[in-house]
Amino acid sequence: MIVYKFLCTISLVFVLFGLVISNVDIFEELKIIIISPDYLITDYFEIAGIGGAFLNSGLLMFAFICILKLLKINPSGVSIAAIMTIGGFALFGKNIFNVWPIVIGVFLYTIMTNENIRTYLYVALFGTALAPVTTHLVLKNCLNLNWIGLLFAILIGFLLPPLASFALTLHRGYNLYNVGFTAGFLGMFLGSILKAYELHPEPRYYWHTENQLLLSIFVYSLFYLILLYGLKLNNWSFSGYKNVFKYSGKLLTDFVLLENEAITFINVGILGLLGTSYVLLIGAPINGPTIGGIMTLAGFGALGKHPKNIFPVISGTIIGALTNSQAINSAGMVLAVLFGTTLAPIAGEFGIIWGIIAGFLHSSLVMNLSFLHLGMNLYNNGFSGGFVAMFLLAIIDAWKKLKEAIGEKLRRFVKMGSD
Q: Which parts pass through the membrane (predicted)?
């Protein structure tokens, strides 16, 4: 399958890049990544090293690709979005140890409810947003396991499937990071409990700013090659690419199924290049979190995002960044722009103005939610996006009714005048 080859290649590239550039004991770097607290914001480049971070990312992507293969999943756009998102976040929060209790919890739910494991497979993959919970609750004093914490982490995963299904009804598919929204709710309750018993983690901020030329060349090369691969499959042409612009992007808009692999890879490559260019243009560093944002933006280029529906949201977020108290190239604002494209379906469905409003609201709300889950939900933008979508959908529905009511009254008034 083309998608499997595509994902395996990205995984291999990350592993090889990590091995090549590591100038110390790369497995020592990997150990540091595993045992270190990794809630937001913990850049693995900064705490361990670039080589170890890329090795961790490549191995984790490959592990989940193997799971898809073992379950005989026919990969599509959602597979690309899930694996690339995992790979991106494996540079600042997910690692080859802390994701598995969450996955086990989801799979345990499917067994207990007699569901097909494939039904909630992608909930398990995206649910690794809560991986920092495992590190915080399970690991202490290096590799001494807290078994009660492990059971609690598995319970968190067990609760994800029913909550994710319910959360989808709240924003109606207009927040692409639905599991991030779900994880935010779970993280909020967990954070409150931990804080009540003084078991909460301390604030954490690691943000890598070095090795910019090397990282910029790597990221640009990655997405340029993805774009070229898509063009090759499409007979070296952009023919048919504009077809993706007709979709709103609402969940689940799977471009592999709706169009084809070639068009999807072209879109993934373009979004990756746009995201990288934006980060460099505003003077923000290419590091673990920003590469994670670019990978997620590009990955969802297979599942709903395209230039037409992300630009209004990005514009609104930039307006917020330029007018609020945060610097436009601050960690919070650059990540809000990249990840805030979770709201792209609002622009795709309701138009440019509503997309701009969505981005503007997101730029403020996302800065004030991470304290609820203490940074243990890595998809904080998905949490914020869910609330913005819920709020705007209600306003949009009310606005439509108001316009219809005003239009009807005007028609009656005109009719009375003509009579």
A: 46-68, 80-108, 120-139, 146-168, 174-193, 213-231, 262-281, 334-361, 381-399
